[in-house]
């Protein structure tokens, strides 16, 4: 064995800052392997039971440690073959001191290394004892014939037997390893670089957002640059930086990106690799520099200035996509917290929801801090106020209010104004489509009940059409049951309204319970008088008149429900419709008694139970009365919105322009 004294380079071991963190020790030796050109580093333990591991082994397939250069490299404190650069993402690269860090966990370290010289492989051992750290013992060098691979295995003999289970198990080390090595494994995935720890291969996509990562090549004045933008799933200590690397991943310089979005956890790094970076004198530039260009030679500044501009564009685009995804997540959380405005489940309600969520999403992307750390009552009030503006004639004032809260750049202001115009126009177009589609359905229904009465019946035709299009009776309703017994419908009603069931038994006779309600509708919308509303519809074939017998059928429904106290509370309004093509005169006379209420078809009132006798023409006229003013207003709003959109985009008004814009908004909806 040969003895070699460590060259201190005018420093002492006490002053060089060798790590005292046992997890950091393992990372130091892993990095040593990768810096030696290894494509695979494996950490394992040696011993009987897991809790009684005698030593840890870090094995790599790198270049090995050349015996002839030992005193100038490995045997010198604060020197490494890559002293001027490092592949570590840290500012404090080990630079020749990492090999001595074993003293934190071990009293003895032994390296077995294989290197190549003169087309032959040679091997030897290096031993270092913590009791005399200034000295290395080197074994005799021998020719190595076991395989054709170079590499080094360092064995650390553990001072504490339980240190593996307490601090160095894969479970305890996983997060540290991911943060430390994910970027390096990702950038070198094409070289099949691997890190294995106690039998587990480290999977970099557990720590890297693979959906948002971006990779591209650009050329500036014939110089090629490979750009990787990495988005981290979790916060790391050195995020929001651009690292300038050689083609072999050695970090030559670093600077801040300027996109530190703490409120939305946009943790990212940019890695730029190029032969050009090797040519520049950038080794003196560190992460503490805020402006890389300031430290470069003047004739190279322009290239790096253009490079930085391209990087900023990439980050901006990715941040936009990141914020859209985050906004969707935040809107989902708002819904879970119950702070989103309530929208009906009908088509109109869903259009309102879509419009509101689109604007909210865009606003979040412009300035996430608007929604940051709001109390529940504040969040609910803000969202309700936004929804109120969006549904009113004051929609555009939302932009003014937002500007009072945050400073929008001219570019952001123009973009947000465009979003408000576009979503308004899209909402109008989609609403017009619904109204037109429903008008077509009404026309087909008219044909069936008025012109084809000899060929259609209640259950197979009228019933099926109304089940699908129950909006005919009002947007506020939800379908509970169709063609079910009254007993079944009432039990389902209690369940859907989340009442505590007193019993599945309804207080009615068997004959009463078997009555079948054609359509049972309900609304959970709270009216001004804090009451909820239910509607039961009795349908008949077109050739059946609404006689007293038919009318009395829904009266029986009402009386059956009235006998059950749990359904007849004053906070409920029950409506019963009998609908036929024609209404008998014997039934029409009942209208006179309730004329003062001003409700078409109202024929009887018993407490909070309203009973109606209606013709299909009454139903169709009521639909027209509700929708005609809306349709006229939508046409006016459409004309105005189209004009505003054209003006904002500096286009000449024409039929072709309107057709194109309309088609674009419809396609956007698809």
- What would the average pLDDT be, to the nearest integer? 81
CATH class category of the largest domain: Alpha Beta
For CATH, the homologous superfamily of the largest domain is named as Histidine kinase-like ATPase, C-terminal domain
What would CATH call the architecture of the largest domain? Answer: 2-Layer Sandwich
Q: Distance N terminus to C terminus?
A: 78 Å
Whole-number radius of gyration?
Answer: 38 Å
SSE arrangement:
Blueprint: E1 2-5, H1 22-35, E2 40-47, E3 53-60, E4 106-117, E5 120-129, E6 135-138, E7 142-143, E8 151-158, H2 163-168, H3 170-187, E9 194-197, E10 200-201, E11 214-220, E12 223-231, E13 241-245, E14 251-256, E15 268-273, H4 275-279, H5 298-337, H6 347-366, H7 376-391, H8 397-405, H9 410-451, H10 458-468, E16 478-485, H11 486-496, H12 510-513, E17 516-523, E18 532-539, H13 548-562, E19 572-580, H14 585-588, E20 602-606, E21 609-615, H15 616-648, H16 655-669
Parallel strand pairs: 2-9, 13-15, 18-19, 19-21
Antiparallel strand pairs: 1-6, 2-3, 3-8, 4-5, 4-8, 5-6, 5-7, 9-10, 11-12, 12-15, 13-14, 16-17, 17-18, 20-21
Helix pairs in contact: 5-6, 6-7, 6-9, 9-15, 9-16
């Amino acid at each position: 064995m040969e003895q070699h004294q460590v060259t201190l380079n005018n420093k002492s071991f006490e002053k060089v800052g060798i790590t005292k963190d046992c997890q950091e020790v393992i990372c130091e030796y892993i990095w040593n392997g990768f810096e030696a050109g290894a494509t695979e580093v494996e950490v394992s333990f040696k011993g009987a039971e897991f809790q009684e591991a005698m030593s840890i082994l870090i094995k790599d397939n790198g270049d090995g440690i050349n015996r002839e250069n030992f005193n100038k490299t490995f045997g010198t404190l604060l020197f490494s073959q890559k002293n001027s650069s490092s592949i570590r993402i840290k500012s404090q690269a080990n630079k020749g001191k990492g090999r001595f860090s074993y003293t934190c966990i071990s009293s003895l370290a032994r390296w077995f290394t294989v290197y190549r010289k003169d087309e032959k492989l040679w091997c030897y051992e290096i031993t270092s004892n913590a009791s005399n750290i200034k000295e290395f013992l080197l074994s005799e060098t021998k020719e190595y014939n076991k395989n054709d691979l170079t590499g080094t295995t360092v064995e650390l003999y553990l001072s504490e037997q339980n240190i593996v289970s307490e601090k160095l198990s894969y479970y305890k080390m996983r997060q540290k390893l991911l943060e430390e090595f994910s970027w390096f494994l990702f950038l070198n995935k094409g070289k099949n670089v691997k890190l294995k720890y106690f039998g587990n291969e480290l999977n970099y996509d557990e720590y890297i957002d693979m959906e948002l990562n971006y990779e591209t090549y650009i050329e500036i004045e014939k110089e090629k640059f490979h750009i990787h933008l990495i988005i981290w799933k979790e916060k790391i200590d050195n995020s929001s930086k651009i690292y300038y690397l050689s083609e072999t991943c050695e970090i030559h310089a670093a600077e801040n990106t300027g996109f530190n979005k703490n409120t939305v956890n946009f943790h990212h790094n940019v890695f730029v690799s190029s032969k050009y970076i090797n040519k520049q004198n950038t080794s003196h530039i560190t992460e503490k520099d805020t402006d890389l260009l300031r430290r470069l030679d003047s004739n190279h500044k322009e290239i790096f200035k253009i490079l930085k501009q391209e990087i900023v564009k990439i980050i901006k685009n990715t941040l936009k996509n990141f914020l859209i995804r985050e906004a969707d997540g935040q809107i989902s959380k708002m819904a879970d917290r119950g702070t989103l405005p309530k929208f009906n489940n009908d088509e109109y309600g869903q259009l309102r929801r879509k419009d509101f969520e689109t604007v909210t999403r865009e606003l979040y992307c412009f300035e996430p801090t608007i929604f940051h750390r709001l109390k529940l009552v504040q969040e609910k009030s803000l969202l309700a106020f936004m929804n109120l503006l969006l549904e009113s004639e004051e929609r555009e004032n939302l932009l003014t209010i937002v500007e009072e809260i945050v400073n929008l750049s001219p570019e952001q202001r123009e973009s947000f104004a465009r979003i408000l115009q576009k979503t308004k126009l899209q909402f109008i177009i989609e609403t017009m489509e619904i109204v037109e589609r429903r008008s077509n359905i009404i026309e087909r229904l008219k044909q069936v009940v008025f012109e084809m009465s000899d060929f259609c019946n209640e259950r197979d035709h009228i019933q099926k059409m109304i089940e699908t299009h129950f909006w005919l009776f009002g947007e506020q309703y939800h379908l509970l049951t169709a063609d079910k017994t009254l007993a079944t419908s009432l039990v389902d009603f209690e369940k859907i309204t989340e009442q505590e069931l007193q019993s599945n038994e309804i207080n009615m006779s068997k004959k009463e319970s078997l009555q079948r309600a054609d359509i049972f509708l309900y609304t959970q919308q709270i009216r001004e008088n804090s009451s909820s509303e239910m509607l039961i519809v009795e349908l008949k074939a077109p050739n059946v008149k609404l006689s007293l017998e038919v009318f009395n059928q829904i009266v029986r429904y009402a009386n059956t429900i009235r006998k059950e106290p749990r359904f007849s509370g004053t906070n409920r309004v029950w409506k019963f419709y009998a609908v036929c093509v024609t209404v008998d005169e014997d039934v029409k006379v009942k209208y006179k008694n309730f004329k003062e209420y001003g409700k078409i078809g109202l024929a009887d009132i018993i407490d909070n139970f309203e009973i109606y006798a209606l013709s299909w023409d009454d139903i169709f006229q009521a639909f027209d009365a509700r929708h005609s003013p809306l349709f006229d207003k939508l046409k006016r709003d459409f004309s105005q919105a189209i004009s505003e959109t054209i003006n904002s985009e500096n286009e000449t008004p024409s039929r072709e322009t309107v057709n194109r814009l309309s088609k674009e908004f419809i396609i956007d909806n698809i």
